[in-house]
């Protein structure tokens, strides 16, 4: 008879092990920084950066600027609707709820060209669209903050390249901030304050809320994330330590189709003076899997947590649209900056054929079942209202294989609603030969 399985260690016993890495005196210290970053990016996929050079007032101004947009009424915000090929624009809870049942999150993103749509036939952005109503300051702050953050990203990428014995000079072209093909962009996430009923539910232990931002992996190359001290909730699920994937992945077929949930989530709270940085799927591909794109989520507040709004600013770094990325070992096929980002690019197909699923799979587990039970009814109603059956969604998103882009595909094929974050299938039995669920969700 088989011995009973050993009880897993309690989540609290695990430390995220995300190191704090200083960028001070970068040019002199870059080889030392490279070593530290290599370890963090290959083992955890998340790390904190300090001595990054952006004064706190600038970060505060960037938050205030986005909040000034996101706290306005829906009719104002929806003038800049989300474009799934550029990933720019506003996404609100009405739209997100249709697909995920989640009303606890909204988002607005801008690139170097405002929220301008991207025309993938012409391979160019379609002009500038900034919310002029917010004044010139909005545009100026968004541009200067992106510039500052881009500098940090480039330093990190250069050091990571050094750590791989790759030529750091190789990065200047793909990450040229001023290139008309530069698709890197910043976003503001807003997680609304809890309602009085939700607060009451927390107090009496009866209200179970879904995550504010469900489990996902970013599909970009690198994400530089600004969070405010005290704003708890970000959690990561590094998967490489799991030994028995069969036991931690459950077939929970559900209409999020694919949002995985890990058994163990490790908090990654903001640290004073630090930025949180994570590897995206693009970098995993580009390094033949050396650097790990790790699942993360923003959990709902629990008893004792702040219940007000939570905001964050991710800056998603991608190479220019026509730049072709491939790892030296060619483990995955080549993809362009555009592919990585867009629903019409090739990354979706490339990911489907990926040979390696282990890293991401290991981050999956079964908590989604609870979530389903909590909201299944509401979601089913909404889907029915939109004339969407699960089968339809699957056929559009390619069996939920993953990339956020595929979710967005569902969004675009009218009358299907837009999906927010990368969908994926958890059907364990189908995993052999199944796509790598490198899927972002930004
Ligand atoms: O708000 C956070 O802390 C995380 C945001 C995030 O993961 C994302 O926007 O991709
Ligand atoms: Fe993320």
Automatic annotation (TrEMBL):
Superkingdom to which the source organism belongs: Eukaryota
Positions of the Fe2OG dioxygenase domain: 182-319
Gene Ontology MF terms: metal ion binding; oxidoreductase activity
Keywords: Iron, Metal-binding, Oxidoreductase
Keyword Metal-binding tagged: yes
Matching Pfam families: 2OG-FeII_Oxy, DIOX_N
UniProt keyword Nuclease present: no
Xref: InterPro entries: DIOX_N, IPNS-like_FE2OG_OXY, IPNS-like_sf, Iron_ascorbate_oxido_reductase, Oxoglu/Fe-dep_dioxygenase_dom
Protein family according to the UniProt entry: Belongs to the iron/ascorbate-dependent oxidoreductase family.
PANTHER family xrefs: 2-OXOGLUTARATE (2OG) AND FE(II)-DEPENDENT OXYGENASE SUPERFAMILY PROTEIN-RELATED
Stated name of the protein: Fe2OG dioxygenase domain-containing protein
């Amino acid at each position: 008879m088989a011995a009973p399985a050993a009880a897993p260690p309690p989540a609290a016993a695990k430390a995220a092990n995300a190191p704090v890495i200083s960028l001070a005196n970068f040019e002199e210290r870059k080889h030392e920084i490279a070593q530290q970053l290599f370890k963090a990016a290959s083992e955890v996929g998340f790390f904190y950066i300090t001595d990054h050079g952006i004064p706190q007032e600038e970060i505060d101004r960037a938050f205030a600027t986005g909040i000034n947009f996101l706290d306005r009424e829906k009719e104002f915000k929806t003038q800049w609707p989300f474009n799934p090929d550029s990933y720019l624009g506003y996404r609100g809870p009405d739209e997100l709820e249709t697909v995920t049942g989640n009303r606890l999150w909204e988002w607005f993103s801008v690139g170097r060209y405002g929220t301008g749509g991207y025309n993938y036939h012409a391979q160019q952005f379609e002009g500038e669209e900034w919310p002029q109503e917010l004044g010139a300051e909005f545009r100026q702050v968004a541009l200067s903050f992106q510039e500052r953050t881009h500098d940090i990203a480039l330093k990190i990428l250069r050091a990571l390249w050094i750590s791989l014995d790759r030529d750091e000079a190789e990065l200047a072209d793909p990450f040229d901030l001023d290139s008309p093909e530069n698709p890197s962009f910043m976003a503001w996430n807003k997680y609304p304050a809890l309602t009085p009923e939700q607060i009451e539910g927390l107090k009496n232990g009866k209200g179970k809320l879904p995550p504010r931002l469900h489990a996902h992996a970013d599909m970009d190359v690198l994400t530089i994330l600004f969070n405010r001290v005290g704003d708890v909730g970000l959690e990561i699920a590094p998967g490489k330590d799991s030994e028995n994937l069969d036991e931690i992945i459950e077939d929970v077929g559900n209409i999020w189709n694919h949002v995985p949930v890990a058994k163990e989530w490790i908090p990654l709270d903001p640290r004073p003076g630090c930025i949180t940085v994570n590897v995206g799927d693009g970098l995993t591909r580009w390094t033949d899997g050396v650097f790990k794109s790790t699942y993360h989520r923003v959990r709902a507040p629990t008893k004792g947590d702040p219940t007000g709004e939570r905001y964050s600013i991710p800056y998603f770094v991608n190479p220019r649209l026509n730049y072709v990325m491939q790892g030296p070992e060619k483990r995955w096929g080549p993809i362009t900056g555009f592919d990585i980002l867009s629903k019409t690019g090739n990354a979706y197909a490339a990911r489907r054929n990926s040979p390696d699923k282990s890293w991401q799979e290991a981050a999956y587990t079964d908590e989604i079942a609870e979530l389903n039970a909590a909201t299944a009814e509401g979601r089913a109603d909404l889907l029915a209202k939109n004339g969407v059956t699960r089968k339809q969604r699957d056929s559009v998103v390619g069996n939920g294989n993953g990339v956020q882009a595929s979710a967005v595909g569902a969004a675009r094929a009218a009358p299907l609603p837009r999906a927010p974050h990368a969908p994926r299938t958890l059907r364990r039995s189908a995993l052999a030969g199944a796509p790598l669920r490198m899927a972002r969700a930004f």
